Amino acid sequence: MSMRAWNPRLLGLECSECGAAYDLEAPRTTCTACGRPLIARYDLDAIARDMQRDAAYASGSDLWRWRAVLPFAPHHDVV
């Protein structure tokens, strides 16, 4: 059984300029149509239900306290 590499709350990627939508099948950072950066789109309502803001602050002061809104799946190791 393979584990999904992406955060389950990550819905997809969207171009910051033209709005083109991309799925998560292949890694990409820029829009194939216009070359602009892609923005990660999350199910923020679900994240808000699952995580209290204070819990993030209690998890430390580094980047990993925001794991709920990082694109990697929860089972990936913190480095």
Could you list the spans in which at least 5 consecutive residues all have pLDDT below 50? none
The largest β sheet comes out as: 3 strands, antiparallel
Order of helices and strands: EEEHH
| Helix proportion range | 10-25%
Radius of gyration (Å): 14 Å
Strand order of the largest sheet: 2-1-3
Report how far apart the termini are: 24 Å
Structural class: alpha+beta
Describe this structure in words.
- With 79 residues, the chain is an alpha+beta fold.
- It is 16% helix and 16% strand.
- It contains two helices and three strands.
- The chain has a three-stranded antiparallel sheet, with no helix packed on it.
- Strand 1 and strand 2 form a beta hairpin.
Task: Put the structure in a nutshell.
The protein is α+β, with helices and mostly antiparallel strands and 79 residues long. It has helices at residues 44-50, 53-58, and strands at residues 10-15, 21-22, 38-42.
What key phrases describe this protein's structure?
about 80 residues; alpha+beta; three-stranded antiparallel β-sheet; 2 helices; 3 strands
